[in-house]
Amino acid sequence: MVIRKVEYDKRDFMDLLLIGDESVDMIVRYLAPGSLHVGSMDNKDIAVIVTVENDDGSVEIKNLAVDAAFRRRGIGRKMLEYVEKLYPDKKIILGTGETPSTLRFYRSCGYRYSHRIPNFFTDNYPNPIVEEEVTLRDMVYLYKDSNKNDTEEQKKQLIERLTATASETTHIPEEFFTVTIKELPDENFGIGGKSIDEIKSNYKP
Q1: Where are the beta strands (DSSP E) in 7-160?
Q2: How far apart, in whole angstroms, are the C-alpha atoms of residue 115 and residue 187?
Q3: What is the DSSP letter of 151?
Q4: Residue range(s) in the chain whose domain bears CATH number 3.40.630.30
Q5: Which terminus of the chain faces fewer neighbouring Cβ atoms within 10 Å, N or C?
Q6: What is the pTM of this model?
């Protein structure tokens, strides 16, 4: 797949954009200031992703869509990875509805819960949006920060070493141990009256 940035005539890709967002009005709002990237295979445009750089330094994914005929091939994941490589030092955020498969997809790509905007879909869209028997109401924001999230390989090594150490210490076979990694946003965890974010920002090696 070839991914390219589109500078002009962005509305030519409205059919694809409407897969990721049902409102033309909403799309128009973020399409002008946003960066549009289009994925193509065999000279056919099959995927889009739109990003906007926020004032706080984060990059927000406003729209991610893949042609229905090309789904379940890892294309959506590749589009995300493309954006993450464009902004390797940026916090990536995105808002989505509570569609079960969509949340599973983003979590499998390393995105974690940040916050939610209550009644976003009911307040901003004229008609109810129902996906997988779920009526969308709140906008759920997820994030991925390359500087804060462990890679899958790091997690794998951590699980292996913790299990091996516990087994050696207790003389209990490794298969009896369960390791759970629970990730907490640094701003939601504190030590000595300060958040981890604040401690890290003040840390000087």
Answers
A1: 35-41, 44-53, 59-66, 91-96, 112-117, 130-131, 134-135, 139-145
A2: 12
A3: P
A4: 2-145
A5: C
A6: 0.69
What CATH number is given for 2-145 in this structure?
A: 3.40.630.30
DSSP state letter for 148:
T
DSSP alpha helices (H): ranges in 44-87? 75-86
Report residue 120: phi and psi, to 5°: -60, -45
Q: Hey, what CATH topology would domain 152-202 get?
A: Macrophage Migration Inhibitory Factor (3.30.429)
| pLDDT per residue rounded down to tens, the chain (205 residues) | 999 999 999 999 999 999 999 899 999 999 999 999 999 999 999 999 999 999 999 999 999 999 999 998 999 999 999 999 999 889 999 999 999 999 999 999 989 999 999 999 999 898 888 888 999 999 999 999 865 555 677 788 889 999 999 999 999 999 999 999 877 666 677 888 877 666 755 554 4
Whose tokens are 């076979």? That residue is 173
